[in-house]
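Re: that chain you flagged

S.,

Sorry for the slow reply, it's been a week of failed gels. I finally had a moment to sit down with the sequence you sent. For the record, here it is as I used it:
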Amino acid sequence: MIEPARSFDTAAEQYEATRPSYPEELLDVLPLERHATVLDLAAGTGKLTRVLVGRYARVIAVEPLDGMRGILERVVPEADARAGTAEQIPLPDRSVHGVFVAQAFHWFPHDAALAEIARVLVPSGVLCIVWNEPDPSRPSPLPDAARAYLDELRAELAAFDSETPFADVVARGPFGEVHEHAVQHDHVLDRAGLLDNARSVSWIASRADADRDAVLRRLGSLLPEGVYSIPNVANALWAVRL
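Prediction finished late last night. Pasting the structure tokens below so you have them in one place:
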């Protein structure tokens, strides 16, 4: 089995092709001016980065995995892409107005990462944690059997579902009141896209090759051909550096 946090490099192209983006209006509530310099930490292939470069004056994108960062450099050339981790951010003290973490905060050693994020933020800078998840208020178009199988797979290997809520983690750092905001949006994929999307999630990508192939064959047998509009909600949790 591949280390889950590094498994994304085995499916980086699928990640780029099939993971959902983020609606720009999710950022409207943040106290960040458009002339700001911001950091996209653990930026992956740049799903959030491309939204940030359309909004802020300068965007630095830090990503530890070479395969993911290579795609990021190709698809978001406007960003300043660098190698680095949440525990060792390659930036000086008080150098950015905002730090964004999209779909990655659960992988961080939280206290070490919060200290490092606080180090690179200016006073009154903003930490914003962003993630997509299925929208429970709207019905899923996936067949019941496919959803049940995905739930079973996630329960086997997803290691972070029962961790401390993000708001409680951020409250341990030098940050003020934690705010939350959400925006509904849809993610449209055909059957092949759904299977590639499944291949890109850690609790499938981290499996041994034979196991992963068997999982995808079974999942494919449960998904009819067609186009699926997946109801998502994009979440932003943010707080100001004290």
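What I noticed first: The chain has nine helices and seven strands.

Talk soon,
D.
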